[in-house]
Hints:
CATH topology of the largest domain: Rossmann fold
Largest sheet: 4 strands, parallel
Radius of gyration: 18 Å
CATH class of the largest domain: Alpha Beta
CATH superfamily of the largest domain: Aspartate/ornithine carbamoyltransferase
Order of helices and strands: HEHEHEHEHHEHEE
Number of strands: 7
Distance between the termini: 37 Å
Amino acid sequence: MATRHFLTLLDLTPDELAYLIQRAIKIKTDLKANGPVYTPLPNRTLAMIFEKSSTRTRVSFETGMAQFGGHALFLSPRDTQLGRGEPIEDTARVLSEMVDAVMIRTFSHQGLETYASASSVPVINALSDDYHPCQLLADVIPGQSCAAASKVAPRCGLAMAIICATPGSTPPASSAFICGSAARKAMNHAKISWPLRVTASPCSTTHKKRLKVLT
């Protein structure tokens, strides 16, 4: 069986996305009520490659691995041969022999895809210049109810508007256009028809029932 990666939301079916959110809500609720009793990842290691730094991303992934009984290994460009010009594919093959999964927060999405193509362990996109799938999933979890899962499963009944906000000076062919095109592609894949608007006014996106994408 081919190794599955999570580089964009399109890597999972709508049913898989719905289950993932429902499961995350259940585990998070149980953890708050009972403590870290669910440890499915003993002796498993997640390599975290950070070409872009982030407090929340590092802490959330590292904490999650610890709570699940595993270990997270932080790697900056200074800690790997990637920072010294080693081919991406070589790093992917080497790490595949030593860890169980890899999380990458990077710039080039094409480079991320190149890494994943050479990796024999799952690769998670924690941010690239084009996609941020983990953040989008996290955005629908805070409500902690089954209704949250319906936001990604058409059969459950959806009620979400997507607004892409970008500065007015941004060329129309860049951030807002890319964001809007990606959102439309994802919705077509999932057979979802959510209202989508591109705006130069971020303030107009501050509505609690909308999914906000600020660029």
